[in-house]
Amino acid sequence: MAAEGFQYLALYAFTKDQEEDLDLQPGDLLTVSKASLLSMENYQEGCVEHPERLGWLLGYNERTKQRGDFPGTYVEYVGPVKMALPSSQPRSQRPLPAAPRPESSQAVSVPDLSEQFTPPETAPPTLVSLIQAIEKRGLDWKTLYRPTDSSGSDSPVYSLSSESEMGQKDVDHLSECVLQYLRDLPSPVIPACIYPHLQTAVTLQQQVLQQSADGAVAGSHGREVSLVLESSTTVPLHHRLTLQYLLTHLAKVTQAQASNGLDTHTLGQIFGPLLIQTGPSTPWLSLDEEFPGLVVERLLIERTTEQDLTPPERR
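The structure corresponding to this sequence follows.
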């Protein structure tokens, strides 16, 4: 039986000092039941979106699979969620720690991908939860992965006038959470060791396309970029799984491009610099600034082309 709940995203690292507390890392996704919030002495209408006003919250950490208390000053509101019935009620309140200053050493990047999940899990729980929430709300929003600037507005996330507007605001925030999660990873999803091979594959793809009058790609050249990643022994398993999960989601996004305007090229421009990081960290490489976007665009094209060519199952 499902119950109503809310999800919060950890902004800072927090080390528990009592046994009933939760350890937090930036990017952790925490689920809190609505019943738990309603039973709090300091609960007031509209404070769900402002966890710092609630004090200590009792929730479930999707990364560590543990339940416990965490400070509302260390998290931000994500959105509503359906969850299993809670097993306990919040404990008595105690002094709440202040949120770390922006320059604090606690505001560090999220843990390495290898520390966030263990196969047979297919991707980090935080990323999975955010993407599932986006897909549940629909992929046809025009502001998907292009959140609008909401600065200057003090209105709560869910104080909008219509259900449609509420959905859009929710998707905007979830989209930014996905992008910020990828920015905060300590190492890019596609590691630098594979960039030279990807550059060769992209160059080959461009040459083949230039020679083709109608833009069709023939033979084994159709999946050159994907094959580089699939055949490499230097790309860590956790990175490979995370990339595949994200590409599967982005392929779904392109299917709604008539509504959201997100074709393979646009998604490449948005996600390329997040998945492939060049510059000072790769001084030994001479890469065009368009390289990250081209790689992601080609990966999406190859994925959608492969799906189109897959024969239907026999009945």
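The longest strand covers residues 75-84.
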